[in-house]
Design goal:
With about 250 residues, this protein is mostly beta strands. The chain has helices spanning about 1-20, 160-170; strands at about 25, 30, 35-40, 50-55, 65-75, 80-85, 85, 100, 115-120, 135-145, 150-160, 170, 185-190, 195-200, 205-210, 215-220, 230-235, 240-250. Strand 1 and strand 2 form a beta hairpin.
Length: about 250
């Protein structure tokens, strides 16, 4: 009886080791369950939906990590791609190179930044009337280059509805330059009130700006006096939380 119990405990431990994953997707500092579904409805003025994410190495060894995509369903005419250290064309399904993630750490956003991109403007017109309505679903995987079975997955739903966007009447581009050392800017289109709030990683507010009735222009923050690190800019459209962009301050 004792031997059977010991055998059971040993097998249980072995199953736990075999099923333990080496990597984990994270979003804005929050851990994601494997096969989590993430909704991406933010949109750039040029018709690109972008979802940034991080990968955490849960092991005590440096891992060389690959990224792969699987297009489950795409709105006709739309295109999907990803960036893993560098940005690839929609034709690339598996990253040609593996990038290192240090033990018990997140991927380095400067050397191995991760983002998923979905273009809904087939003519690259920048005209919202040409943007494609609907939802595209893409699964993204990450795994050590020497063990493709040890993979994690996140499913991203890229959703665009022209009527809902017209209610917001606002577009915000990605932060640039990124990393920034003196000034960070965002291309903005807004017909209502748009408020931008900068936060550090601790969630502390470090700056704020309000724009009233700007149809198109540039919103900039002076970051020269901020400490080096990761920051978030949250945009509030007509009093409602709308989207958040991440950027890095580098000295």
């Amino acid at each position: 009886m004792i031997r059977k119990s010991l055998l059971f405990l040993l097998l249980t431990a072995m199953v736990g080791v075999l099923s333990a994953q080496s990597l984990r997707f994270e979003l804005n500092g929050e851990a994601l369950e494997n096969n989590a579904i993430v909704l991406c409805d933010s949109l750039t003025p040029w018709g690109e939906m972008i979802q940034e994410m991080e990968i955490r190495n849960l092991t005590d060894a440096t891992l060389e990590v690959m990224v792969e995509k699987e297009e489950i369903q795409l709105v006709e005419g739309s295109q999907n791609s990803f960036c893993w250290g560098m940005c690839y064309t929609p034709a690339v399904v598996v990253s040609p190179v593996a990038l290192p993630i240090l033990p018990n750490s997140l991927n380095d956003p400067l050397e191995a930044g991760l983002s998923f991109h979905h273009n809904i403007d087939p003519n690259y017109s920048g005209d919202p009337s040409q943007f494609l309505n609907g939802t595209s679903i893409v699964k993204y995987y990450a795994y050590p280059s020497d063990n493709a079975e040890d993979r994690i997955c996140v499913e991203v739903w890229f959703t665009y509805n022209a009527e809902e966007v017209n209610e917001h009447q606002a577009f915000v581009g990605r932060a640039y330059p990124n990393p920034a050392s003196s000034t960070v800017s965002f291309d903005v289109k807004s017909t209502g009130t748009l408020e931008a709030v900068l936060y550090n990683l601790l969630g502390q507010e470090v700056a704020r700006q309000t724009v009233n009735g700007m149809s198109q222009g540039k919103l900039s923050f002076d970051v020269a006096d901020l400490q080096a690190g990761v920051y978030f800019c949250s945009f509030i459209a007509d009093g409602q939380p709308w989207k958040t962009e991440k950027f890095i301050v580098k000295k």
